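Example 3.2
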Amino acid sequence: MPTDLGRAMQRLTPRDIRTRRRAIRDLYEHDRPEALEGFVALLNDDDPWFVAKAVEAHRKWAPLHGVEAFEPLLNHGDVGVRQAGANLLESFGMEAMDTARRLLSDADAAVQQHAARWLIKNGGESAHAELAVHPNVVVRRTLFTRTNLPSELLESGLNDRPAGSTSDTYFPRMLDEALGVKFERRNGGWSDLGGQLQDGLLDVI
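Structure, written as tokens:
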């Protein structure tokens, strides 16, 4: 392991894969949190192995550097990387308040839910009120499963249900809003739909 950290980090960038992998193993083995900066570029690597190692480096060392150290994960274009970053919220205290609130607007429902869980634990009444009216039903449900909420919030949770039948309202909101699944809905009786399922015309009832 080179004693010069800069020289060690330079070994993360050559085209030779073996050199880069050896550099990563060395930095991990010697537990060099100062090297985190060198892993940021690897988040955009074409090789999933290097992306995974970069995410792991942030998981291992970002909490030692502060909230801003995991911004590269939260601003990443890949949803899996952003989810890994949102999961790191639990490593931080009140300094992550603004970050958690910002993540409530992320395009991914899982990222929003990670932020909601942190805000439920750390955000206080103002954050709870914000979660109670969040457009994502999963975020609202995450709040309302918590005990010891004020009575007015619990009442709003009891009234938080869409109008209409389950098949026409609940399922579309669960699939589209909460999970981001694009689908085509068909209505019909069980017998008719069951026959279509057997014939391979439907994926699920």
